[in-house]
Amino acid sequence: MRSYSSSSAKSSHARFKDCDLSGIGGVEDLRGATVSAADAQSLVGAMASVFGIRIEDR
Fold it and tell me: What is the DSSP letter of 34?
């Protein structure tokens, strides 16, 4: 998957597997979706942005 923008799409029964979800918009609308553990790592940046969390490398 190259991009995803939910813009009010319902994803409560969506399943994401083998997807690069980095940089997606509307991460809040993924509520209820199922994401594989490997794909969840690509959501970290988008989720951190929503919550105002900065991620640093040390």
Answer: E
